[in-house]
Structure formats: structure tokens, C-alpha cells
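Worked Example 4.2. Consider the chain below.
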Amino acid sequence: MIFAVSFVASVLVTLYSVPKVARKLEMAKITGVDINKGAGNKIEIPEMGGITIVMGFVVGVITSIALHILFQLPFESTYVYAGLATALIIALIGVYDDLFDMAQHTKAFLPLAASIPLVAATIDSSRIISIPFVGAIDFGILYPLILIPIGIAVASNLTNMLAGFNGLEAGMGIAVFFFASVIAYIKGVTIMLFFTVPMLGALLAFLYYNKYPAKIFMGDIGTLSIGCVLAVAVIVGGFQTLGAMLVVPYVIDFFIKAYNRFPSKNWWGELKNGKLYPVEGKVRGLCQLVMKSANGISEKGLVAVLVCLEIIVGIAATLILLGPAKPLGI
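Applying the procedure from the previous section yields the following C-alpha cells:
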């Protein structure tokens, strides 16, 4: 019941905030071109709308905390506060990047610093990770000092890279947090729900305005936050393997882009007769791989394919992770 209220709170706050924030962003000329609508259609859309996602998420988390305190229900407050602090630091990094466009290498490594609150909170927690088909591995001090910062940085950057199409980031994020929430609920890992449920609600509300044709973009504050919150949730919940499984499509995109030396242009689609094709016929990312494999596809179709791929990954993760979970500190 508590997390249902948290979900509703995050939905309502985001739905209410988006139109108002969009107008402010337009007035401040914080906009971006909807590049996949064709060379002759330079449509300017408010960018950095991910602020509303963070707002909804934070309100959802605070609602869960307040209700747990009100009804005197126990919860791992240290992990919740540390996770929230890490997510907010990532959001600040996203704001800076949206406004000033920081260098790629800076954006890749700066999230390491955002993990400090979570590292401090988990320094004395369990350092054992259970890997399907392998077993439990004790990483010792390397887990809090090395693996957690890397996990936050990698997850944030992966979800930041697979983006740029109407409804894509929010749609895939919804699938990610839906399955994370379902698995956490079934396994009784309540602490994960503090993070996954509010983010699910915020993304659902944001998608209403971000779906094709988009009225607002989430920007890096949104894309970085999606990966960060997922990483925080699986770390405090002891479900690190779940996080690794859910980002498989993002990892595929990463390797394709790494092979192409992380292109900063021509990663989008070239619109011909209502369909998107890879620019110059070259595949530079997962989205262009779908375009090429389909021999041209609409933007709505492209997003639908990738969201369905994430759903398939989520179903597979659910079927595999049937064993007992071991939350931090237990």
C-alpha cells in the first residue's frame, strides 16, 4: 500500500510539472532539435525535461520514507538516504551537462564521485554477489571501493547513450523499472521498491508528453538518472545480477558505438518516405542496427522494437532469478 501511494505521488508530481517546466525551458531557450523528423523540419523541443522525472522520483521516495516513519515500519534508512543522495548528485551532473555540454570523458568518469554516499553507507555490508550458473563470489573490500563506483558510472552512461528518439528512453526505462519492481516485490526486497517504484511512476507520467511526437525531451539529467537509480536499487537490494541483465540492450548499443569510436554525429536516422534509415547506410548504434535490419522503420516502430526487446530481457531475467535474494546487511 505504501509503495502504491509513492507510485501515485510520483505520477501526479511529474504530470503536473512537465507543462510548467516545458514553458520555462522554452522561455530560457533550453531546447533541442527533434533531429529524426527530416532535414527540412527543424522542430525545436524543450530539453532538460528530466528535471520533472527527478522531481517525481524524489517526491515518491520521500513519500515512502514519510509513510514508513508515520506507521513506525522498519526500513534501511541509511541505504535509502545514501541512494537518494547518489541519485541527486547524478542529476546535478546531468543538469551541468545539459547546460554546458561537458566533454565525453568527463561525463564518463564524473559519476564515480557521485557514488561516494553509497560507498560510505555500504562499506560494512555484505560483499558477496550471487551470479547465476556461477555461484556466490566474495569480492571483499573491492566491492564497496571499486565495484560500486564502477556500477554507478557504467549504468548511468549506458542509459545516457541509448537515446535520441521520441519515447525511447522513457519507454525502455519503464520496462526496466517495471520488472525490477515486480522481482523486488515477489522476493520481498522492500528496499529496492523505495527506488524502482517512484522512478517507474515518474517515467510513465513523462512518457505521456515524450511519446511520438514528443513535446519535451528529458536530456542528460533524465538519461543519466535512469541508469543511476537502477544501479542504486540493485546495489542496496543485493540484486546486482538483475541490474546486469536488464541493461543488456544498452550494453549491445555500447559495443556497437565503441566499435565506431563513439560517434558524436550521424547516430540518428535519415528520414525517407516516413521511414528512418542509417545515415550513409552505416550502423553506428543499436537503433541504426534496427533500422538497417528492418530496411527502414518509422520512429514509432523503432521505439516499439527496442521497448519490446527490453521487455523480453526483463521476462528472461524474471525467469532466471528465481533463487533467494540476499539484501545488504543481512
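The chain has one domain: 2-320. The first strand starts at residue 31 and ends at 33. Compare this with Example 4.1 before moving on.
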